[in-house]
Write a structure and sequence with these properties.
5-stranded antiparallel beta sheet, Beta-Lactamase, rod-shaped, alpha+beta, 712 residues, 55% helix
């Protein structure tokens, strides 16, 4: 049986045959040159027959070799055809040499040396058995020729101008024996060298076959489009390359430190059930190969420190070789290649070397596919995250932003529950501002015991915490009972990092143990940073909104907020029929304070009056400053009598409010107040405001401290 790599071997063989043909042509050409020198253009008939015989043997075989090399035959058939043709040519070369010897003096001819040269030159082409046949054939032909001379059956023929019978017939037996001994010695000397050449040739064939299989493995691996199919293809092809009884490819999950079966291939071809992942930290060849970093040999799986008895029972093979798979990026550990043999097997250094080379190719193919899918997954997550962030930035109000952040994060990483905790600098506590799927009891517990939870480390160190299985992680010990009642099994916490420090944490929960990948971590951190930036933007937005609706001097609502609130209250009063009162207030004598003490003192008086009025009303009421010394009060669900009572109360409060003025000056202020009711007098906010404003000016013209609730 010819090796499958004979495509290269046959090319190598035919190439050497063609080189040998060139030597044949060179020899025939040299014969022509000698005859030209001796006879010019007037060759004797005998010389002409010699040249024709030489070229008659060389040229047809050159044509045959050319056709074989250019044929569409398989490499095996090309090799067989070239080998048989070369052997036939070798036999004819022996006859040609005998013909040349006979026509150049027989036992006197020096051309018998051509036997030694020819048999030595073709020794590299043929196997030892063929060389024995060829040498015996040459000895038989030469012996037959010499015997014919000795017995007188043939008489040697001489060329013109050639010296004749220089040695004489009596020396023929001696010459015969000498050449036979020379041919035998020549064969014995050349045979070891020929054997070494054939052995090296066989090694080259084997290495070519191995490299060809590696190339085929790489091509098949590049054609696969998903990891399960790639793993199975690698297992099947590697078993053939290494000629093993079984091949196992295992996957190492770095995120949860667990071993999974990638694929397996067995010589028996019997279907075998997929094996469940090994328990975490259970002794296995994959874990042992990771720790050792080198191939591991197991002569007997039942007596090895590299794997537990439970793991050993998974194998039907006796001897195993475990080769670690290291891929990209950064020499990442991917798993192991396990080479198995049913019977006890001693692994040679060549087998270990080939297994390591195959493992390197498999690791590169797995890395390529993993990185491709990881890139696709990362791109999908980033695209999804970009869409979520776009939606979040549409509304920076906290009432809508907080739920949107939690829901977006939960959807992005396929979590079943989520919570957003923000740090309150006033209470100096972490408070849950929004959550999904978590009980109030758990959230209260987290608020009270936050410093004992993994979230605390996340908040303080501005990093992330991953807990793939809460039942096996010691960090959850202080809250194990509460987690058991809550019934989630994995969670991750991401710090909401900002330039000013950590704003809080974003927690995601899974109902089952969950392997959180590095891609999930990267996207989670990126989303958390974007969420923190949006929370800061929301804070700035709220501050800007508050400042746009707040009087900077008194921190009371300004005219803009007053107009909005008055419109809302008038609409509500019109719908419900419950009146709302509007009180317009103007301070009496404020100009004299400004003129006497300056505007700084005047501003202080306005602040004191604003505080006194705000303390006089209900939490549902609203007081606003219009500017200067004017204030307005919106008094919901109040009739005329209630509005008058409030006006009297304000007068009394102002009359008893001692103002803080320079030089211990004591002074009190009064106020003129105008009252209007909605919808009794008008349900239009602008009309209501003008009515109350007119009554306030009428009260001020009447007498300081007057209250007007009727007329215009």
């Amino acid at each position: 049986m010819i090796p499958l790599t004979m495509q290269k071997s046959s090319s190598f063989f035919v190439a050497h045959l063609r080189e040998n043909q060139r030597l044949h042509l060179l020899g025939a050409g040299a014969l022509v040159v000698v005859f030209l020198i001796l006879y010019g253009w007037r060759w004797p008939e005998q010389a002409l027959w010699l040249v024709m015989a030489a070229f008659g043997v060389v040229l047809p075989f050159s044509f045959f070799y050319h056709r074989i090399e250019r044929s569409a035959w398989s490499p095996q058939k090309q090799y067989q055809a070239a080998l048989h043709t070369a052997f036939l040519q070798g036999c004819l070369d022996v006859l040609l040499i005998a013909f040349l010897i006979h026509n150049t003096g027989g036992y006197d001819s020096p051309l018998a040396l051509l036997y030694l040269i020819t048999l030595g030159s073709v020794a590299v082409f043929f196997h030892p058995r063929q060389m024995v046949i060829l040498n015996l054939w040459a000895m038989a032909i030469y012996s037959g020729l010499m015997l014919s001379y000795v017995q007188g059956w043939l008489t040697p023929s001489y060329l013109p101008l050639q010296p004749q019978n220089t040695l004489g017939l009596p020396f023929a037996p001696l010459i015969w024996v000498i050449y036979l001994i020379a041919m035998t010695v020549n064969w014995l000397v050349i045979k070891p060298h020929a054997d070494r050449i054939h052995s090296a040739w066989a090694d080259v064939d084997q290495q070519n076959e191995y490299l060809h299989q590696l190339l085929s493995l790489t091509r098949l691996g590049l054609e696969r489009r998903d990891l399960p199919n790639l793993y199975q293809t690698l297992a099947d092809e590697v078993r053939v390359i290494l000629n093993a009884d079984a091949i196992y490819l295992t996957r190492w999950e770095e995120d949860n430190a667990q071993v999974h079966q990638g694929a397996s291939s067995h010589r028996s071809q019997q279907p075998r059930p997929a094996l469940a992942p090994l328990q975490k930290h259970e002794a296995s060849l994959t874990l042992s190969a990771l720790r050792a970093g080198i191939p591991l040999l197991v002569k007997d799986v039942n007596c090895s420190p590299y794997l537990s008895q439970t793991t050993a029972q998974r194998f039907s093979e006796t001897s195993l070789l475990a080769v670690p798979l290291y891929g990209l990026p950064e020499h990442r550990y991917l798993g192991a290649l396990l080479v198995g043999y049913t019977n006890p097997h001693d692994f040679s250094q060549t087998e270990i070397k080939h297994a390591q080379q195959v493992a390197d190719v498999a690791a590169l193919l797995i890395s390529r596919m993993s990185l491709f899918h990881e890139t696709q997954y990362r791109a999908s997550l980033l695209e999804q995250m970009a869409g979520q962030i776009t939606l979040l930035t549409c509304d920076l109000r906290r009432t809508t932003l907080l739920p949107s952040i939690v829901e977006s994060a939960r959807s992005l990483l396929d979590a079943q529950r989520a919570a957003l905790h923000l740090y309150d600098p006033v209470s100096k506590k972490m408070e849950c501002r929004y959550s999904v799927g978590l009980s109030e009891e758990y959230l209260q517990f987290m608020t009270e015991h936050f410093e004992k939870s993994p979230e605390a480390a996340t908040f303080q160190e501005q990093r992330f915490v991953l807990i793939p299985d809460v039942g096996r992680d010691e960090r959850t010990s202080p809250m194990r009972g509460m987690i058991a009642r809550e019934r989630f099994h994995a969670y991750a916490v991401f710090a909401l990092e900002s330039e000013e420090g950590s704003l809080g944490t974003l927690s995601l929960y899974w109902d089952e143990p969950h392997a959180i990948t590095s891609v999930d971590v990267t996207v989670g951190q990126l989303f958390a940073r974007r969420a923190a930036a949006m929370l800061q933007s929301a804070t700035l937005y709220e501050q800007a909104a508050k400042e746009s609706l707040t009087d900077s001097l008194t921190n009371l609502p300004n005219r803009r907020y007053f107009d909005r609130r008055l419109k809302e209250e008038c609409e509500r009063a019109s719908r419900s029929g419950r009146p709302v009162a509007l009180l317009m207030i103007d301070l009496d004598g404020f100009k004299a304070i400004n003129d006497s003490f300056g505007h700084a003192i005047g501003d202080s008086v306005i602040q004191q009056i604003g505080t006194a009025i705000r303390q006089s009303i209900r939490s549902t009421d609203m007081v606003a400053r219009f500017g200067g010394d004017e204030f307005a009060i919106i008094f919901p669900e109040a009739d005329k009598e209630a509005a008058l009572r409030l006006a009297e109360k304000i007068k009394s409060v102002l009359a008893s409010t001692k103002l803080h003025l320079p030089r211990d000056t004591q002074r009190y202020v009064s106020a003129s107040i105008g009252i209007a009711l909605c919808p009794v007098e008008s349900d239009n906010p602008q009309t209501l405001f003008e009515l109350a404003d007119q009554r306030m000016f009428r009260a001020k013209r009447t007498q300081p401290g007057t209250i007007v609730s009727e007329g215009k």
